[in-house]
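From the shared-data thread, chain only:
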Amino acid sequence: MGKYFGTDGFRGEANVSLTVEHAYKIGRYLGYYLKERKNGKARVVIGKDTRRSSYMFEDALSSGLTASGADCFLLHVTTTPSVSYVTRTDDFDCGIMISASHNAYYDNGIKLLNAKGYKIEPEVEAEIEQYIDGAIGEIPLATRDGIGRTVDYAMGRNRYIGYLISLATRSFKNMRVGLDCANGSAFMIAKSVFDALGAKTYVINNNPDGVNINRDCGSTHLFGLLDLVQRESLDIGFAFDGDADRCLAVDHEGNVVDGDKILYVCGKYMMEKGELKNDTLVATVMSNMGLFKACEKIGIKVDVTDVGDKYVSENMRRTGNRLGGEQSGHIIFSKFANTGDGVLTALKVMEVLAEKKESLAKLCEEFRTYPQLLQNIRVKSKPETLADPDVRAAVAEVEAALGDDGRILVRQSGTEPVIRVMVEAETDEICTRHVNSVIQKIKDKGHEKV
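Structure, as tokens:
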């Protein structure tokens, strides 16, 4: 990770750690970079979520891009996966999504995608960072007919909606579906797709006002969807995050179905149909132990990556694996999309229900979720803490105590001065005891940042 760009773009509080000047400079350098490599005018497509600051950043990015000679095509409010889709199918040189995903409204982010709709290469981000910090000299402004233009491209979002509808293999007629749009990007897309496929939809949190995105709603706050599903006796409910690249579900009994369970349900179905390449799915080190045990029981192998859908995507490109994702609901169906796609994930879950003629609760019966406890501790130095022999010994002691009935994971945050200690075990009490033992050792050795 770089100085500004992390695993999911340049993210921070709007006009505090991510400013309008940052956005303008990103546009300036990106337009110049693309023009130099194309030896001609570049085409860049931009989407945004519903945050108040997204409009400001859209203007700043398009100003920088056009000043460097790139043409900008505006999708307006749309989802991250739609930007990826339009970028790769309409021959754009780059895609940009303005969103801080599941964060609060006052944060925002700038995600850059390459011409194939994948996250842009780290070396490009590194050059942009150098330009922001003044390490690269001034770059030329476009002049005369070389100046770029800004074009309305709402039609691209509509084509994406049509694409999603075309992927459905079954009608959803007579199925009662709840949708929590998080007052974010999904409000423009999700209901249209499910209505077109015949579902009876019940939608909440689809009235964005610029500051209510993710506020007590969406995939990080499921109580509203749980209430809706039970109050209206729905068959299923889906919750998206701010830019709709995540999806979590609620079954008709009111149970939360997270990304791990979605991977299991869809992976098992795909394997039965011969569509799960290598009988393998991709998950991260933070996936619940229950996923690994449930997959092992039915013969599915699991490739494990570092935390972040970026790393899941890299594995899938390298191996050709067709299904991967995170517990948080970033699920990638690589045959149909190059990034996590919340609405697509909901459609694929619906396909399993329709084909198997089973409820989501029934399909998840064999999946046992292990109690899990994650605790963060702020430290003076992440590398020194992780290298401390006594801390390592405390972790090894927990590993030995858990054996095959649990696991411990100790890792550093990529964005904060924080060490994360996670334990999975048979009971909550065991998790708490072992997490506390490692945290206490970190404190005893003087690593805690007070």
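The CA atoms of residues 178 and 237 lie 4 Å apart.
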